[in-house]
Amino acid sequence: MDMATGELSKPVITDRPLAIEARGLVKRFDGTLAVDGVDLSVPEGAIYGILGPNGAGKTTSLRMLLGIIDPDAGTRRILGAENPQDVARLIGYLPEERGLYPSMKAYEAIGFMGALRGVPLKQGREKGRALLEEHGLGHAADKQIRQLSKGMAQTVQLLGTLVHDPKLVVFDEPFSGLDAINQGKLEVLIRGLADKGTTVIFSTHVIAHAERLCEGIAIIAGGKVPFAGRVDEARDRIPAQVRLETRNAQGPWRAALPDTTRRNGDFWNFPLPESGIEPLLKALIDGDAGILSLSIERAGLHDAFVAIAGEAAAREMAKGSAQEPTS
Amino acid sequence: MSTLGRLSHWHAAYVIARRDFTAILFSRAFVFFLLGPLFPVAVMAMAGGVGAQMQSEAAIEEIGIAMDEADTQAMLTARDDLAARTGAIPAMVALDKVERGDSFDAEAALERGGNSLAGIVSGSLEAPELTATQGRLNRWEGTIGFIAAYAADQDKLTYPLVQTSPVASSGATTNSGRMHTAQGGQLLLFLLIMLLASMVLSNLVEEKGNKIIEILAAAIPMDAVFLGKLFAMLGISVVGLMVWGGTAGSILWSSGQTLSDYANPGVGWPMFCLLFAVYFGMGYLLLGAIFLAVGSLASTVREVQTMSMPVTMLQILIFFFASLAVTQQGTAFEYAGMAFPLSSPFVMVARAATDEAIWPHLIALGWQALCVALFIRIGAGLFRRRVMKSGPQGTRKSRGLFKLVRSLFRSGSAKTV
Predict the structure, then answer these.
(1) Is A31 on the interface with B (CB under 8 A)?
(2) What's the pTM value of the predicted model, to 2 decimals?
(3) Which of A244, B225, B370, B376 is the most exposed place for a label (fewest CB within 10 A)?
């Protein structure tokens, strides 16, 4: 959504066919609007992030895309099918709340998850062993899930999500509960999937993962999508930040600084003016500011997310307050 | 369905059933399931033994004889003689010697206590006087007169030799035996279903606790999860029945007996066993569907215990209802028991024991099958709607019973999560 006009952003446009195409998805729970018109376009082979604060509607959106629940309104097309259940065997899903049968052995758990997606049990178990071996967990193949560490169990479940070679993988908060090393391994795995042409979509509220991995993102806040597009586009929503250090604290050059400038000792922080850096530089030199250092930093995805999601949340709150007296 | 789509309902149900069946079969719970019926039997046997012991100890009653020495001796001898011939004659003991013509305060002697005297015979053989409570007077009056008459002149009594012709059974014996089979069948059915329904419920709760339910929901229809769980437990029960049946058969065989040695059920043993198995399946599916639907509403073991309590109570009530119905055959009460879906399997298994006709079973099975289909449909609908319930609930608006029921019959994926 354009922060000034309030219009929805255009979905990511690429030449590739879309793995996921959702338009105007709406979901209510007993009168509460959980998702309010979500649009998503995810190209095939992309790594796509769904970002949003807790309770924003990420999980509900993913569940609608997967066909676990039906939307109250809107359409969805997953891997070319209007009903996600028609392509269920091409989809892998790792829910936010991890779950495995504690008494199952690791390779059996993977085999069982494959069987749910149509892989013959024997074949799934064999592949389970191979996957565990491939990911350094061969020694745990015959151990019961209850004997594994949390990280190992999570990896087993992740491999169970992939045992049937899905074309689309949906991860709901895949990094939660993993230590830094396992998070790194998961990032490698996700990149590997994308390299093989698998579309990966995941939700997270840890922006760094999305920034490192994603080709496109959608920010969900208050059940709406205020932004959907490339990571670069999101970052461009926030002007670059200028960090200036001067020898002189006073002088006519101060008039050239934007109103939003914040002072921190000898440093001045402000957004890059729309007119660019050159007129400012000229004013600083002419006004004898005594420039000691000057840097221009492009906004991070975290700042963009906070700005976009925060703005959307604030707008929703204002809208709610305005409607309250009349409702 | 295309090969890219979800597994078919039956295929998915098979995947779930296979997992549950294997998991339960190799779990400790299954050992308890196998041993389960032994506990109530052992408790009943112990309670029966203790009860019988208490009854026998409490039942020691003696009649004191307070007559002169000759009459006392004659009464004791007559009692022993007659007891040997007829049995069931109370024991007698001699009290203080009383001279003929003297009075004896029997009432005071009984009130003194400290003994097991239940009555006192005083007077003489010609005019015996029995002092006891009213109930005992009614019971013993004739017996004491008989003993006194025998004691007075036993030579007057002659006992013709009775020719005996034993038969294997009689109408009364058959009826009694069939009634025992009917009651035993009902009890076994009740215990089995109760055990299984509890197990299927704990299995579901474990699954919800393990958070695996969402993985299942994403991959296969929730109705299939419901069906798979239900039929896995049915498979488990078949194994249980085979083990118990095999054990019982072995015990019979090793003791040189066969089922024919016991009262033949109305429909015969083979048909009775078959009908028992089918009614067990029906009863389990009906109650299991209710338990699973209830389980889908709960998210913790504590919630399950709270919510399943009324269902368990209902189960016990139904068992009592069916037990009562079997004693009132041919009445509206029995027909009501046959018609009410949850009690129908219990009442009909009893009827198979007591009545020869097969056709009522065909009708009952048809009706029960219809009810099973309906219960599973409604149960699966509730399960689908509720088992994944999470997220913001909002203010619950009154939906109306009709709307709720109608929504249960919608196919497809869950409407609320």
Answers:
(1) yes
(2) 0.69
(3) B370
